[in-house]
Amino acid sequence: MNKGYAAADRILEGSRSIWETFHDHPFVRGIADGTLPKENFKYYMLQDYVYLLDYAKVFSIGAGKAADPVVGRHFSGYVDQIMNGELNIHKAYMAKLGITEQDVREVYQALDNLSYTSYMLRCAYEGGPAEVCAAILPCAISYEEIAVEMVRRDPACVDHPFYGEWIRGYADPGYHEANTALRDLTAACCENLSEQQIDHLVEIGQRCSLYEGRFWDLAWELRR
Q1: How confident is the model at residue 20, as a pLDDT?
Q2: What's the pLDDT band for 17 if we cut at 50, 70, 90?
Q3: pLDDT of 46-101, one tens digit each?
Q4: Hey, which residues are catalytic here?
Q5: Residues 31 and 167: beta-carbon distance below 8 Å
Q6: pLDDT tens digits, residue range 87-130?
Q7: Is 26 left (phi over 0), alpha (psi -120 to 50) or beta?
Q8: C-alpha span between 34 and 160 (Å, rounded)
Q9: What is the rounded CA–CA span in Å between residue 14 and residue 176?
Q10: Which of 204, 218, 163 is nearest to 50 (CA)?
Q11: Do the beta carbons of residue 32 and residue 154 sit within 8 Å?
């Protein structure tokens, strides 16, 4: 394993113990067993929608800072995936929940959500492509691990008439392939970094992972 991949795996392993706590979060369990109140899921969808808009900006900053045009194109590709892929999943659910475009425009971004995205944007502005990767990995990878664990515990959860679509989307092999490509991109961005720089990236990943936990909390508690 070359240095870049070793660094990428250090970032991931540094946060995995945090992600493991998400499996038994009441909001996550509610999606898995179908008992989550629709009110909570609606609030989550609105908060996640505005989160993803900032998430895409983080990738955009990475594209602008990338010295390697290949790396820049990869970041730009993720922006397109978010804006024309993941947000489309949200729009389908929003239609089911009766959420209008006006609702989206008027949503109040919860303070935990705002703090999370502000931290990611700060990492991107103050750092470079490697810091961008460290900031966005926790969201991308933890969602896959959550959905895969849901299916492992109860394969029938993918057939739930409402929450099944959410689970299938993040447990899908295509989503895994996108995350594998994101790991490859992270490795490329970490190839020439010092041990001290990699330690900093691990810290960024851990902080963003803790923010992921707070995001589940705010959706469960309808926290503003």
Answers
A1: 96
A2: very high
A3: 999 899 889 999 999 988 888 888 888 888 887 777 777 666 667 778 888 888 87
A4: 139, 212
A5: yes
A6: 666 777 888 888 887 888 888 999 999 999 999 999 999 999 99
A7: alpha
A8: 7
A9: 20
A10: 218
A11: yes
Tokens representing 209 are 């992972």
Q: Which residues of 198-222 are buried (b: 16+ CB within 10 A; e: fewer)?
A: bebbbebbbbbbebbbbbbebbbee
Does pLDDT of 212 surpass 90? Answer: yes
Amino acid identity for residue 20 in this structure = E
Q: Is the pLDDT of residue 167 over 60?
A: yes
Identity of the amino acid at 99: I
Q: How far apart are CA 120 and CA 46, in angstroms?
A: 19
| Cβ-defined contacts of 108-113 (< 8 Å, 24+) | 108/224, 109/47, 109/50, 109/51, 110/47, 110/218, 110/223, 110/224, 111/223, 111/224, 112/211, 112/214, 112/215, 112/217, 112/218, 112/223, 113/47, 113/50, 113/51, 113/215, 113/218
**Amino acid at position 94, single letter:** M
